Amino acid sequence: MAVVYTLLVLFLAVFVAGFILLVMGAINFDFSNSEIPPGVNQPVKLRIIHVMLISRAVVGKILENIGICSQVSFVRYMQGRKTLGVDPKLFIKDLWFEKVPVRIYQPKVPSASQRRGVMYFHGGGWVFGSLETHEKLCRFIARESESVVVSVGYRLAPEHKYPAAYEDCLNATVHFMKNMEHYGVDPANIIVCGDSAGGNLAAAVSQTLAGRSDLPKLRAQILIYPGLQALDFNLPSYQQNRGVPLLFRERAAFYMLQYLNGNASNLEEVLEGSHIPIDIKLNYRKWVSPDNIPEKFKVRGYKPHVLLDCTTEVYETVKRFCEPNLCPLLAEDAVVHQLPESFILTCEYDVLRDDGLLYKKRLEDNGVRVTWYHLEDGFHGIINSFDSDWLSFSSGKRGLDNIV
Fold first, then answer.
1. Residue 350 annotated as catalytic
2. Domains, the chain, ordered by start
3. Among residues 196, 237, 274, 395, which one is catalytic?
4. Which of 68, 184, 281, 365 sits 20 to 30 Å CA-CA off 320?
5. Backbone angle region of 233, left / alpha / beta, with phi > 0 → left and psi within -120 to 50 → alpha
6. Which CA distances in Å does 204 have to 45, 317, 324, 356?
7. In whole angstroms, what is the distance from residue 47 CA to residue 82 CA?
8. How far does Cα 91 stand from its chain's mean position?
9. What is the pTM of this model?
10. How far apart are CA 105 and CA 377, in angstroms?
11. Statement: residue 67 has pLDDT above 60
């Protein structure tokens, strides 16, 4: 018995020591590759959040290495642990729309007229995020705008590859539009909304519905720091913010590949731009180009990137990056000009900033009315921090107030 006890203590000691070394090693490595620009408000808070996220990932990796669970499942579990109680101002119900789990938030206060309906697609790089991670956000939007909000729990990568997430969001939206009378929603006032990967999904769904004559027209699309293309990971914002938490340049490309095919073996080619043939890149250059980014966004150390060609083998694995349902920035003008009024939020210190700026230009060039809100001191993921107790950022609340 004493021997077993001694072995157990020894195992725990080694585990804890290894954990501390791993965490410190990961943090040191990540810190050496990270940078919090002076323009970010409350940089210490951002650093703390960053450390917490790294630590969670390291623990997940340890658990994966010793065979308890995968790193991805551990991070997802930790993300979804917090549950909120009853909301005195909202009816909240979990349902299924066409085999897709959704959570509906309906204001309790009586309304003299039909309400607007908001389909919300959460962020998380198509790999993370859930109904739980965006619970506070959806409650806030429903309460403050007195709207019916439908949060969509779409399937995640890498288990479910493209187009699974897009199809779930589209099917849930179509179901809602066909049954909106059950929720007291005005058919002329339905909005799609999403942050990060969810912004990508909202843009793709909006483009698909623009061509549907059998459904009401969307009233608007709200895109919160969306990722909208995978042709060029060397745009000014990708270069300037490559190491700014909470989304590094390399991770943005990694998540895109996870969504595409659940495999990141071509990550280096995607980052350097040798994954798409030059003739195809030149064809899309009218839409995806640093030339379309206002000069004021290039002053923070941007260097033009040399166009590289790619092998047929690499292109075959990633050619679906040219599909608008995956990269909405590549949709034809005939589709873009049919899109509804749009709200785009971008953050200065975000690798995805220029995706939003390029889409803003495309929409405006096609006569679509755009409201653009730019957080000069914002970073990727800041909206979710609007109500995180002592780790809250006033910019996140300001951005969310503008969305409302």
1. yes
2. 1-79 (no CATH), 90-229+323-402 (3.40.50.1820)
3. 196
4. 365
5. alpha
6. 34, 21, 7, 14
7. 22
8. 26
9. 0.93
10. 31
11. yes
